[in-house]
Design goal:
about 140 residues; disordered N terminus; mainly beta; globular; two-stranded parallel ribbon; four-stranded antiparallel sheet
Length: about 140
């Protein structure tokens, strides 16, 4: 087969559902401050929102830390947990910046967006066009 005849899979589509970054911040995989292994930062209550008290737990060394703050830093500084301020486990240098994800679900959404040949955005019926969606903030 020549280069013009290579096989292609189905066109992948990414539909922006308007999910803000906070939609992915429920659980974060971070670097443990004690052993530098992977640790989880998540709400103490399963139904907790972004401001709910949180617990950091490292399954490798057993480190536990509590957070009861009143403010979160979503997306800033890049590659940091918004509650404890720890580096995210899923982070890597990329094009002079840091490419990061809070958790596997966030990483999957980024991968879907990157691999898509067609990236669609829908107008919110109540608020019109918005720039708050996670995908609207990603580079082309």
């Amino acid at each position: 087969m020549s280069g013009a005849q290579t096989l292609r899979g189905p066109t992948r589509r990414a539909k922006d559902r308007g999910r803000p970054l906070a939609a992915f911040a429920g659980e974060a995989l971070v670097v443990c401050p004690r052993c530098q292994g992977p640790a989880f930062s998540k709400p103490r209550d399963a139904a907790g929102d972004i401001f709910a008290p949180r617990r950091l737990v490292c399954r490798r060394c057993g480190h536990v830390q509590e957070w009861n703050g009143r403010t979160v830093a979503l997306g800033a500084p890049a590659g940091r947990d918004p509650h404890f301020g720890l580096p995210l486990w899923l982070a890597t240098p990329c094009c002079g910046d840091v490419l990061w994800a809070y958790n596997a679900r966030h990483l999957e959404a980024l991968a879907d967006f990157v691999h898509a040949r067609l990236r669609e955005r829908a107008r919110d019926p109540d608020n019109g066009w918005s720039n708050a969606a996670t995908t609207s903030r990603l580079p082309r």
